[in-house]
Amino acid sequence: MPVSSSANSDDAFAEVKAKVDLVKVVQEHVRLTKRNRELWGLCPFHQEDSPSFKVNPQMQSWYCFGCQRHGDVFTFVELIEKTDKRGALQTLAERAGVELRKLSPEQRERSDDRKRLLAMLKLAAQYYEYVLWSSPAGEPGRRLLVQRQVGEETARRFQLGYAPAGRGFAEYLRAKKRSLAFTARTVHQDEQRKYINSPETPSYVKGRVIFALDLAKDEIARRGHAVLMEGQFDVITAHQFGVGNSVASSGTALTEDQVRLLKRFTDELLLVFDADRAGQQAMRKAAVLASQHGMRTRAATLPDGMDPDEFLRSSGAQAAERWQAVVDSAPSSFEAGVAQDIAGFNPSNANQMEIVAGRLREWIGLFPEGLRDGYVEVAERRTGISRHLLLRAPEPKRELKQAPNGLSRQIAGKKTTVSRYLLQLLAVNPAAFERIRTKLTPEELDDEDRGIYLRMLETYDRAGASGLENELGGYPAEVQDLIRRAWAAPPPNVDGQVAEELVARLRLDRMKGRHSGIIRELSEAERGREAERVARLEAEARELARAINDMERSS
Ligand SMILES: [Zn+2]
Predict the structure, then answer these.
(1) Which one of 82, 201, 287, 529 has the largest count of C-beta atoms within 10 Å of its C-beta?
(2) pLDDT tens-digit profile of 228-280?
(3) Any idea what DSSP says for residue 45?
């Protein structure tokens, strides 16, 4: 380690600052996306859904528009590690390989403690690995690995060791004149601790660690999603069989901290949970929790109730291919929940319909408001239960809000409309303009959405699919907010097909609105005995009803 030439601490700050890159430091905690010359992400210092945290690589500075916090790399580390300026300097100096002269006795002690612990953990890992591979005592462990089809390379990557009964390591340590109480289990888990922001906690904290995240992170980036399994051994087998983006929550139900940790690496989780009731309950909880942090989840089902370990080992050479089929066919977790709720349901039985609608209302209600509108659509399509029934809130106050005019699109008291959903979809997937632009007349959109639609379309025409990202700064603030929110928490499905369905739905709603308008006019005309007008309106209403009928049948 090169020794800093300066005893002066200002110089030490400058030297460290010159050697570390703010972007890299931030990226260990925040996933950044490039827009123009700046990098954006979700602020780690306050709760938010749309990115307002900005890093400027040229200036090596950061700023959050949400909580107004800002600063340089030292300020960032100070806040994220909940330390002081000196503590941040120490952390970053270690990282940059700059040795600091004037440490306080406590700082020196803390730093030494940490080094001692890490050295000890490394020693233990090496010892148990040595036992596994090179000692007769490791024979049962080697046999077990052969039996589970885990090769040496995978086992070494996971730093698997074997702890035979007795006091092997303690004696080994005594021989080395050290002592420390910990278990073999701790060894690997501590290795991942660098992803946890808790320097004040020098030991493994259950519920804050994701098993194998360190080994899986590159593959997660490559495949665009992480596979979350229940068992740690499932994960080891998965890596052995090429599913290198697999991780597990460490022996607990998925926690908020773990979701935040995962979100630094991906927006999508594939949940592979046991097919039994407990497993499926856990899947639902994980899906809801992840959605609250703006993550999408899908739920995979393995054939014959197998767990991932059994499934992959029994697939042998076809493992990769069969796994891909599982991934491809996995529905969203929301849909998987719907499928469970409607299993064995007979739609012609009114009583059953009521029960199932109740279950679905409850399921939908667990998700963040911004998702519910889209989920109601999905549930309606999937079950044939009318959206009116799926939306009916239990409180009478809310029921009143549901004006029975057929056009009410107030979702659970929140105004997320079909028209708004379409805008969100187009913000996330501007290419969908191609599918709908000739099918949609702007008049069919809600009044407040029409201008936004036209402006987005204009940007798209002029600047292409990336135009919105580049020109967002020029949009009115509330529109920027709408679009950023859509980016941070996209609607459940954003493909062109769905855009077309939404457009059809808008047209249908508009036609229904016109139809009830004509019916109102008709009764007026009847009261006034205007025979000619009545005849004309009747013909119009019939025509419209037929068109509505056709449309509903074809969708
Ligand atoms: Zn902030």
Answers:
(1) 287
(2) 998 888 999 999 999 999 999 866 678 888 888 888 888 899 999 988 888 89
(3) S
